[in-house]
Specification:
CATH topology: Jelly Rolls
CATH architecture: Sandwich
Structural class: mainly beta
Strand order of the largest sheet: 1-2-8-5-10
Number of domains: 1
Number of helices: 1
Distance between the termini: 29 Å
Mean pLDDT: 89
Order of helices and strands: EEEEEEEEEEH
Low-confidence stretches: none
CATH class: Mainly Beta
Number of strands: 10
Shape: globular
Strand content: 35-45%
Radius of gyration: 16 Å
Length: about 140
């Protein structure tokens, strides 16, 4: 779902990444990613003294064939360049303090535009740099 606080980067009808401005999140629980995404991202905005029911998450036999990644900029400004897996350029996005990008597929490259502090979250388990990712030379514009 795309609104004024969300920018989806797409190619041939497929979403490669979504950029969310989460400085002003709606009240309550709001999930930003769709249910089919391997990584689930939501926001909470509750008043003082709100208690969320105690719970645990049930065990399911889940499988994911792709790592999806969330990058939240705590401080600073970064540029994310997106490419197809054959390294063809798709688009670039500026992500600054209070914003995050969710990467669903494809190749991504980050440039630090300012001194930046960033939080990265992705689905696991992590199999190490040699097995978990492939570094590529991208076609620069």
């Amino acid at each position: 779902m795309e609104d004024k606080k969300t920018k989806n980067i797409t190619l041939d009808g497929e979403i490669y990444a979504s950029i969310f401005d989460i400085k002003n999140i709606p009240e309550g629980l709001d999930f930003l990613t769709n249910d089919e995404s391997f990584i689930q991202v939501g926001t909470w905005n509750y008043k003082k003294d709100k208690i969320l029911d105690a719970h645990f998450h049930n065990y399911f036999d889940r499988s994911s064939y792709r790592t999806q990644e969330v990058v939240y900029v705590i401080q600073g400004k970064i540029k994310c360049n997106l490419y197809e897996e054959d390294t063809t350029y798709i688009d670039s996005a500026i992500v600054e303090s209070g914003m995050m990008i969710v990467q669903y597929q494809g190749v991504h490259e980050y440039e630090m535009i300012e001194d930046s502090k960033v939080l990265e979250v992705k689905n696991g388990p992590y199999f190490g740099p040699d097995k978990d990712r492939t570094r590529v030379n991208v076609k620069k514009n």
